[in-house]
Amino acid sequence: MPPVENTAVVEEPRKYDYDLIVVGGGSGGLAASKRAADLGAKVAVFDFVKPTPIGTTWGLGGTCVNVGCVPKKLMHHGALLKQHINDAKSYGWKVGEKETHVWGELVEKVQNHIGSQNFGFRVSLREKSVQYHNAYATFVDQHTVNAVDKRGREKTYTSENFIIAVGMRPNYPDIPGAKEYAITSDDIFSLGYAPGKTVVVGASYISLECGGFLKGLGFDVTIMVRSILLRGFDQECAERVGDYMKEEGIEFMRGFVPTKITQIEPGTPPKLKIEAKNTKTGEMVEIECNTVLFAIGRTACTESLNLEKIGVQVNPKTAKIVVSEAEQSSVENIYAIGDVIEGKLELTPVAIQAGQLLANRLFGNSATLMDYVNVPTTVFTPLEYGCCGYSEEEAREKFGKDNIDVFHNLFQPLEWVVSEKPGACYAKLVCKIDDNRIVGYHVVAPNAGEMTQGFALALRLGAKKEDFDALNGIHPTNAEVFTMLDITKSSGKELVASGCGGGA
Question: Which of 156, 181, 278, 402 could pair with 283 in a Cys bridge, judged by C-beta atoms 3.0 to 4.6 Å apart?
């Protein structure tokens, strides 16, 4: 009897250990790794958190989950509850004359939630057969990384493709006492004691958000600002955010930079002294406080990856990786996503979507690229600021100052009427004159994030001003103001806040 022919397909051995190695376990890296695994790729994730100068560290999930969006939003909500308690009194609720806040209880709840998410990420990677390595990976060549774990053990791994998604970490100024006595947003959400009187240094959204919720939780807050608020955002809206925060009792020191921090007394919290200088007048001031929080920008975590050795182009000023529109670096098999790439938005949902789209292109025969323009975002300050598309300044620069008009108005939320809350909210649509298309949406109001998410779809689909005008408003809501904006900046007409979200 003739022998039976073996028709089984023999797979060729893999040339590399993995089809894809993702360096960085934040939101973008996790999204890319799981999508690649779904598409049949053999994937590994390397993630290692270097402690902050005061020793803070965290688990899998990156900045957003551990020391960014998630704990920030929870503490922001905790601060808003104090406003709601005050409002409740105007609505007939009988509450205690003096409410107290226990910092430690909030921190514990926040950290418990973060811990559950850290665990959930590890489980989801395991379910997707993505190998997770709690180790610091650096490049040996374009297909090899050397990984060192927390015990100092080293091992090399190879991969056909790499995605760098290491994110960014906060900057410290080069002044005496900065790293010894100050903290950053990497520390505040797990701080083991109430921060007390706090000086927040910086004018970024991180600075204003942290200063905002700390004030709302009952702490004395001063924000030290070198120049403008919320650089890169619409400046008219940025100043309205700042004005509202001043009404809430936050002190702004405009034009000052810190020069030295010293500890007067140790403790939890300690007693500190921060010295500062006015950049225009040279005036020197000293402030005694308990906590100094730096929010003066962030630097991409690329310095120790050996990228120069393998030819990956990095902007020396920002430490960010230069990539193509397809997130490809100067080395063809090495890609980058998220905060670490040059010239793109530093937002968690952007990193997630970019990572998923990149995995689709690498392993799913897709050609779809990430849209980095029509991206909604919100600054979670005491009065939130939501936006999508171009700021007024950017639109005038890109499309021509004579080709832009702005429809805007002030409005008073109906909920503020009974509590007689001072101030006003603001709505703005930036419109191209030649085709009437809306290229910028901006709102400074409670729940701005929820409003912005829906309206962002209109911008993405190319909505025109007449589309907004034809939309029926939901009355009485804040969002309905965008269906009836009829005052243009070019008209010079004075803005007067109307009630009921801009309605009758």
Answer: 278
